[in-house]
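ok trying this again, last paste got cut off
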Amino acid sequence: MPIKIPDSLPATAVLESENIFVMTEHRAIHQDIRPLNMLILNLMPTKIVTETQILRKLSNTPVQIEVELLRTASYQSQHTDGDHLEAFYTTFDQVRERRFDGMIITGAPVENLDFNQVEYWPELCEIMEWSRSHVHSTLHICWGAQAGLYFHHGIQKHTLPQKLFGVYEHRVLKPSSPLFRGFDDVFYAPHSRYTEVLEADIRGASGLELLSTSSEAGVYAVKTEDSRQFFVTGHPEYDPDTLSREYWRDVGKGLNIAVPAHYFPEGDPSRVPVVRWRSAGQLLYTNWLNYYVYQTTPYDLSRI
């Protein structure tokens, strides 16, 4: 089923070229159904790339989704054209009185900073607190997951000896979880981060369920017992070349960066990566939307 996004959003043309069903605003308003109202807080500097990656995953869902893009007002992106932000993004003050079926909070390249050192941390805290009463289910990704676990549950992040960078094997700890319905016993997911949360801390926290881990990458998926908050420490939405672009970017800067693990054939960065995470990444987003948003959200959003 389609996602409903502005006709002129750059991601629209990309998704349509991939034969993904994107519904125009004009067509959507003539359908006699209520779409899922989805808010994406995009904290990534490469906003257009991240928009497209996430919208691609949201496209394969059972109902129409009306997507709104949210940015921070306390920090102005230096890597996205101001006209794009003005045309397609809203700020928290413009949505704080509204309610949403689902929300996604992305990662951000600020892991090496303490949370309180992040320029927009107070605003993000306000948004996360607001999500408790105004969003039915929220999905936090990568640094967004670490930020959410810290804010909501007091889970500290810890610096890794070196950057966790590559595609890693994961196992499902709770096969009965609808989030992992249809998954293989072993699945793969990309990671790109300098910090981690510890399994012992998750298991020791009240109200949290550990759903998936990796022997190399550690904690992968966590949710609250009431399924209102989800935390995924990797990037299931990544494109085939995302890790490659990050690697060559850092090489170009003269940084001491390792070749992404389990990504290039035989570890050779001159070769084309083999994608092993696409289907699992799609399933994760689809299952979250279907089982934890669409199937359970109230028709009347004022009841959230």
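PB: full thing came through this time. The radius of gyration is 18 Å.
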